[in-house]
Amino acid sequence: MQNFWDQRYAQRVKLMKSSAIRDLLKLTEQPEIISFAGGLPAPDVFPIEQVDAASHKVLQERGAQALQYGPSEGYGPLLELIARTASRDGLPITPENVFITSGSQQGLDFIGRLLVNPGDLVLVESPTYMGALQALAPYGAEYVTIPSDEHGMITSSLEEVLATRKPKLMYVLPNFQNPAGVTMSLERRRQLVELAIRYEIPIIEDDPYSQLRFEGEHLPSLLTLENELRGTEEDTYRGYIIQLNTFSKVLAPGLRVAWMIAAPELVRKLVQSKQGADLQTASLNQMIAYELMRDGFIERHIPLIRRTYRERRDVMLNAMDEHFPACIHWTRPEGGMFLWITLPEGMNATELLREAVKENVAFVPGASFHAEGGVQNTLRLSFSNATPERIREGIARLGRVFHKAVAAQTTTASTHV
Amino acid sequence: MQNFWDQRYAQRVKLMKSSAIRDLLKLTEQPEIISFAGGLPAPDVFPIEQVDAASHKVLQERGAQALQYGPSEGYGPLLELIARTASRDGLPITPENVFITSGSQQGLDFIGRLLVNPGDLVLVESPTYMGALQALAPYGAEYVTIPSDEHGMITSSLEEVLATRKPKLMYVLPNFQNPAGVTMSLERRRQLVELAIRYEIPIIEDDPYSQLRFEGEHLPSLLTLENELRGTEEDTYRGYIIQLNTFSKVLAPGLRVAWMIAAPELVRKLVQSKQGADLQTASLNQMIAYELMRDGFIERHIPLIRRTYRERRDVMLNAMDEHFPACIHWTRPEGGMFLWITLPEGMNATELLREAVKENVAFVPGASFHAEGGVQNTLRLSFSNATPERIREGIARLGRVFHKAVAAQTTTASTHV
C-alpha cells in the first residue's frame, strides 16, 4: 500500500503548502525552548472564569439549543449583536451581512472556495499572512505581490498592477499586520479603496488585531472608507469589502468562533457552502461568545490584553536594542502581536533558526510569508505569548545567535576579499 | 452591484447543491409544525448536566489549554483514547490513524478535497445521505448508484460496475442508513470489502449510528472485515477503509466533534489540509468529549438514547400501521434515527410536502437522496426528535394527507380509463 494514496490524490493536493508555523509549534513545544514562533495569544489573559461562567449559563438556560444542530449562517442573536455593533459608526450592517465561521482561517478557505478559479490572481502584500496563502493555494490562486514598508502596502505602483495584471481579489491586513506588525496609513487606505472601487476588485480586509492598539490613533477600516467613498444610501451593505473578524484574539482561539461581514448575496452563497463543508460552527461556542459580548465583558477585557501585550512589546524592543547587532533592523508595531526583523543581505533566517533552536529559542523564518519567495533574510517574532522574563532571556539568546552569524558573515566576506 | 458577485464565482460554485433538509428546517421551525424532517437527535437525551460538569472541569484544570490553539490533528489524549477504544476488537488502530474533524460532514468535505478530481466517479447507494452528495459535488464528483433493499446495498451487480465504471471511491452507510434506515447484511459487507480489495477502491464507511442498535445483532464494521480479509500483520492500519465516526449522535451535535480512522499517510495529508481550512477543531469541545468518553459516561449514556429512540420508532411504526393507506410501504429499522417510505408509483413526495405543511406536519422528500435523480415517490421520516405524543399526532396528520392523495390518484386513474 506504500504509494496507494499518493496515486489517488486530487490535483489540488499538489498545490497545498504545509505551514512552517504549525510544524514549528511541534518542534518548539519543549518547555526549555523560548518560542517567539507561534502566533499564540498570552494564556495569562484568557478569561477562564468568564468562559466557564458563560458556558454554565448557556447550558443551564438554553442547554438543548447549545447542544443541538443550529443554522449554518450562525446563531441568530449573535448575528444580530455583531450587526448592531458593526453599525455603531453609521455603517449599514444588518444580520444578512454577517456569517459565522470556525475561525477566520475558515473564512479565508470559504473565500477561496467561492471566488478562486485555478490560475486566478490574488494581490497580496509582501510579506503577508502565510495562512492566507495556504488557504487560497489549493483552489489554484496565484499571487501578485506589492511590497510594504512601515506604513503598510506601498500603494504608489498599485494602479499600474491593477490595470495590467487584473487580479480577481486583493488581500490586506491593514492593522498591525501579521507578520510585519505595520499599520497601513490613512492615505494609503483611501488610495487602495478608491482603486478597488474604480477597478471593481473585492478586498479581503483581514482584521483580527484592530482592537489591540497600544498607542496612536485608531484608523477607519477599509469597510468604513469604502462605504463612505461609494456614497450610496443602502439599507444593507453591498460593497466590495469582505471583512474578516474574530473572537480568537480578544477572547480565546480555542473556541474557534469568528465572523465575516460581506454583501448579503455573498453571505447566502457562503451559507450554502458551509452546509456541505461542516454544516455549522459549534452552537455552544457561538452562544458562549454571544454571552460574553452581550454583557460587555469582551469590551471590558480588551484593555487588559492591550496592557499585557504593550508591556511585552516594550520589553522585547528594549532587549533587542540591547542585544542585537546594529546591522539588524526591525519594525516597531503600535499594536497586535508581531514584529518583523530584517537581517543583512545574504543571511539566511532558516539556517539561523537551526542555530537558534540549539540555544533554545525559536522564531519563524520569513520566507513562507513572501508569496513570490526568494527572500531569505527576514523573520517574524511574536511578543504576545511569552512572559516578560522569558522575552528578555529569549532575546538575549537570539542576540548571541545573531552576533555569531554576523561575525561569521564578516569573516567570510573578508576571506573573499 | 446586482450581478457583481454572480460574475465572480468560481466554477465549483455551480456544482454546489443546497440542502433541502437545511432549508426545510427553517420552514418547519414554527412550533405548530410537527417535523419529521430534520435528522435531529432528541433534545430530551442531551446530557446537559454532564457536558456542563465536563466543561467546568476542563476549564478549571486545563483552562489555558482549552482556550488556546492546539494541534491540527486533534487533542492528543483524545486521539489516543479513540485509538485505544477502536483497537479493542484486535484492530491495529494507533493515534496516527485518527484525525479529529468538526463533525463528520467536515470529514466528507476533506475526503473530497484530497481525493476527488473533477469528473471522478464516486459509487453510492441509492438512496444515500444527501450531505455526502453535497460535500463531494463542489469538487466535481460524479456519481454511480447501486440500488439498495432491506439488506442494504445490493451487491450482486457491484463487480460489473467496478470493472466497467472504475469508480475512484465508494461511499456506504452500513448501519441504519440515512435515509433508508436499512442495515447491510454480513454477507453483502463481505462481498463489498472483497471487491474493494480486489479492485483497490477505497471505501468511505460512514458510521454515525452503529451504537444506536435497538434489536438484532451487531455486525462487524467494514473496517474490521477489511482488516481481516487483507490478513496482514501491520502494527498500524493501512487499508482501504476511511471510517467516519462522530460524537454527534451519542453526545451532542452542537459540540461539532467527530473523527476519522484511516491510513496514517492519508491522515497526514488531512492534517495538512486542515491547517489551511480551519486550523483545528475547537480545543474546548475536544476536551469536553474526551472527559465524557474517558470516564465511561458516553458508554453509560447510550442505553438511554437507544431506549428513547426504540420507543419512538415503535410508536411511529404502530401509528403508520394504523393511519397509512395499504398501498404505502416503509422500512422497519433496527436502530438509528430514520425510516423510509415508498409511495405508489406516480405520486410526488415534494408536492405532498406542500399539503403536509398545510396540515402542520413535515418530512423530507426523497428526491435529493437519489444521486441520479428521477425518483419522486419516496420520503424520509426521522423518529428521533419528536416526543411519542407528537409522533402519534403527526403520523395521523400525515395519514390524512396520504389518504387524500391516494384517493385523488385513484380518481384520476379511473377518469383516464
UniProtKB/TrEMBL annotation, chains A, B:
It comes from the Bacteria. GO terms for biological process: alpha-amino acid metabolic process. Its cofactor is pyridoxal 5'-phosphate. InterPro entries: Aminotransferase_I/II_large (IPR004839), Class-I_PLP-dep_aminotransf (IPR050859), PyrdxlP-dep_Trfase (IPR015424), PyrdxlP-dep_Trfase_major (IPR015421), PyrdxlP-dep_Trfase_small (IPR015422). Keywords: Aminotransferase, Pyridoxal phosphate, Transferase. Gene3D superfamilies: Aspartate Aminotransferase, domain 1, Type I PLP-dependent aspartate aminotransferase-like (Major domain). GO terms for molecular function: pyridoxal phosphate binding; transaminase activity. This is Aminotransferase.
